[in-house]
Write a structure and sequence with these properties.
Layout (H helix, E strand, L loop, with lengths): L38 H46 L2 H19 L5 H22 L1 E4 L11 E7 L8 E6 L1 E4 L2 E4 L1 E6 L6
Parallel strand pairs: 2-6
Antiparallel strand pairs: 1-4, 3-6, 4-5
Helix pairs in contact: 2-3
């Protein structure tokens, strides 16, 4: 038996492939080398992913805490604004009160002096209203507007129908918001008899 017929015989240096049991020689394909151990790479990737998750969770918790702090601060500022919103207007009304108290404190004042004091007090009140943008509604001769007028009665007059003929009490508006509607008498539509 020759070396080519025996399977356990050493392969001569010139042969590229060892003989098979069938006696024919086939080329042998060698694949790419396998990595030694993939576990160290996976463990490192897992540690890296866990670190990223921890960093993202920390950032999320910080952002959530910041949002909560901003919400609390805003609520506190809104509460302070509501509580002290009238502060400037109240400061402007203090001289009016002082003038009224001084008028009442005078024992025997002449009617002209009292009238002058009241007119001065009314000017101070008007200045406070102007500063606070409180506008009086005095609609004599204007078309009746149910948004700012309150009709108390209907009257016959030589004015067009639904026109304000008389104002019983002025109304007031603050920045286009009605504080008090004007109480008015409105011209009744003419009926044809």
């Amino acid at each position: 038996m020759t070396t080519q017929e025996r399977p356990d015989a050493p392969v001569p240096p010139g042969d590229a492939s060892p003989p098979t049991l069938t006696g024919r020689s086939e080329p042998e394909y060698v694949g790419e080398p396998r990595p030694a151990d993939p576990a160290p790479d996976i463990a490192a990737l897992l540690r890296k992913a866990e670190d990223e998750v921890a960093d993202l969770r920390d950032a999320w918790l910080r952002a959530r805490a910041d949002i909560e702090n901003v919400r609390k601060q805003s609520a506190s500022e809104i509460a302070r604004a509501r509580k002290f919103a009238i502060e400037n207007f109240a400061e402007d009304l203090l001289p009016v009160r002082d003038a009224l108290e001084a008028t009442l404190a005078t024992g025997a004042a002449a009617p002209e002096a009292l009238k002058a004091g009241v007119q001065l007090t009314l000017k101070q009140l008007a200045a406070a209203f102007d500063k606070a943008k409180v506008v009086a509604v005095d609609p004599v001769g204007a078309k009746f507007d149910p948004n700012v007028h309150q009709a108390m009665t209907m009257v016959d007059a030589d004015l067009p129908p639904n026109t304000v003929a008389q104002v019983f009490q002025k109304g007031y508006v603050l920045n286009d918001r009605v504080l008090r509607p004007a109480m008015v008498a409105v011209v009744r539509p003419k009926t044809s008899d």
